[in-house]
Every structure is written in C-alpha cells, then in structure tokens.
Amino acid sequence: MPKRTGPVARRGLARHLVLTYVVLALLVAGLLSWLSVWSVGKLEAHLQRIDMGMAVERVRGDFLAGIDPGRPNRFFHGDPGSEAFPAWLRRLNPGFHKIEREGRVWHVMVDDQDGQRYMLLRDYTDYEQSQVASHWAAVSGLAGSLALAFILGILATRRLLRPLSRLAAQVNARGAQPPQTRLAEDYPPDEIGQLAAAFDATYNQLEQALRREQLFTADVGHELRTPLMVISSSCELLREEQALDTSGQARLARIEAAAADMGERLDTYLMLARGGDAAERFARESAHTAARGQLAAWSAVAQRRDMRLTLEVAQAEAPALQFPAPLLRAVLSNLIRNSLQYAGPRASVVITAGPDFMQVADDGPGIAAERHEAVFSPFVRGEQPDAGNLGLGLSLVQRICAHQGWRVSLQSAPGRGTVFRVDLAAPASA
Length: 430
Known about the structure:
By secondary structure, the chain is an alpha+beta fold.
C-alpha cells in the first residue's frame, strides 16, 4: 500500500482541524441557542401564567362589582361546560392554556370560583410571530457562527500548519544542507521548535553514523588492499625463483587465487556499502564460467565433508549472457557454502548454470515454509551451524541480487531438500 505524500497528508490534517473547529462551534453555539430558547420560553410561559391569573382576578372583581369589564368575546362566565362559553373552550380545565385556532394564537386563563367558571382570552398572535422571527434570528446567528468558525478554522489551521509545512520542506532538503545544520534555530521554543530540535538530534546522529561508516569503508579498502598488493607482489617474485618445485608452484597458485578472491570480495563489499553503479567496472563472465570456477574451489571442501558436489550446465540456443564476475562468484560461493554447511554428511549438492540463471540444490533436511523469508535476514543461522558462521551469507546474496536487479528464490520443505535459484535477467520486483 503506497504511503501518503506530504501535501496529501497536510491537506488531510488541515481538513481534520477545520472540521473539528466547525463541529466544536456547532456544538457550543447549538447548545447555547437551545438553552437560550428553552429558558426564555419557560420564563415567558411562567410570566404569562402569572399575568393572566392576575388579569382574570381583576376582570372578575369588576364583573362582581357590577362594572363592565369591557372585553367582549374575550371574557366569559357561567357554569362550567355551559353554553355561556364558546364550544371550542368548554372542555378546558382550570389553569393556563395556549391554543392555536384559525391562524391565531390565544392565551386562555380558566378559573373556577364558588361553582362559577371565569375565562379570559388574549390574542398573542403578533407576539408569537415575533417569537418565531426571533427564533429564525437565532438560527441565522447560528449559521453565521458556523460560517465564522469555518473561516477562523481555516485561518487558524493555515497558521498552525504553515511552520509544519516549512519544517517538512527543510527536512526533505536536509541532504543538500551543510552537516550539523540546526533547524530548531528557525523556530520559537514551542512544540514545533521541539519537533525541529528532535529532527536535528536524530539527523545529526545519522550524519555522524554515516560519516563513520564512510570513513570505515575507506579505511578498510585502503588498509586491506595494501597487504593484498604485498601478497601479489611476493607471489610474482616467488614465481621467478628457479628452485621452486612443482608442489611449491601449486601452493603459490593457491595463494595467488586466494589473494585475487579476497580482492574481489573486498570490491564487492565496498560496492554494496557505498551503493552506486560500481559493478560496471567489474570484469564480466557467464554463469557457466562462474559455476565451473566455484565447483573447482569447493570440491575439496565437499570431499572432506563426505559430500558430493557436481555441476550441470543447462543448454540453450541463446548465447550465455555476461554479468559482473565478482558478483556471480560471491552469490554462487555463498549458496554453495550454505548447502555444504546444512545439507549434512553424504548429501548431494548440484550446481546448475544456464544462460541467464544459476541454481544450487541439495537433498538435505530442507527448510520449513515459515522460515523461508527469515533465512535471508542478517545473522539468521540454521541448526548446528559451523564455527565462525555468522549467518550473513544468504543476506549478502539477497543484497547483491537486489543491487543488480536479479531475483533469488527458495524452494524447500522438511525432508525434500533445498533449491536456491537466481534469475539473472529478472528484475528484482518480478
């Protein structure tokens, strides 16, 4: 699954912050508006009930005193439920009522005294319409608050993310900056400044480690090539000795071969450590040639371990391809060493070379499926490893293949042997 890029991640974070800001504003404004409307409604209802109660007392007093209340069709009295009351008001119980009828809003107060019912009506239509208008004003205010919150959220988010975006750009461009660059100096001592300081500390540590590795590889390359040159020069001088017999010549040849092999291995390791395309400078040879050379190099080891090492050359119409010779030898050497170490006594190891592939197969105990991926990891060793085996051989094979675009695969199962195949022409992602 591809990772999210920096701009996409920033847009996602900005969207999240703005949405959070708007939702928070909605919750706060909505809650305050609801509380305001609810409390005002409750208070108004209570005040209206008190006012209507006092009003009906005054009108009743005037009526009982023989004074005309002066409220036609608004004040009624008589027996409860009698025809003295309009039909739509007869079933009301004593107390305060709010009734909507024919597009009008009425407040009704019903009071029973001495077996008589007194009823007072007030037309609150205009008041209720003003209340509706005030409610819409509250809704408009809420909408305006949300719009303002959205704008403020965008501004606040931009202000918050601008230094983060700047820091991300500086971190991405850190490789082009001088060593020990201090990004934290460009930021105030807040959370972003602390983040920049953390980047500084981590990156500076990496720079130091990289520098130490570069110096180490340079020192190793220089210090090891010097004794190798001495060994090679000494071998050339010894070859000119007339008194050197056949046995001595054979030993000298082995020393020269070992020195050359050590030089190739050193070049391979330095190439992997430094990266780049240094392999283009290597001499090239076919997989067949490399396989024949490794067969000769490892046959004596196989005999000492009572194992059989053979070579099979796959015939093909197409001519054999040429590849960097030291890398072919390093891959084959480590695969063969792995089989000789773990296949067991009297096992058979077969090297197969084709125009564009190499293969090392053995009939040993095999490898469980759950360990197939792990065997290519550094410092992973099988059961009963040889002394001095650090578990780096297969890891080196995988690193070389990844560097060259080759593909290494493993087929193995307990009791069915092990087959390592290297497709030299296949891309690493195939």
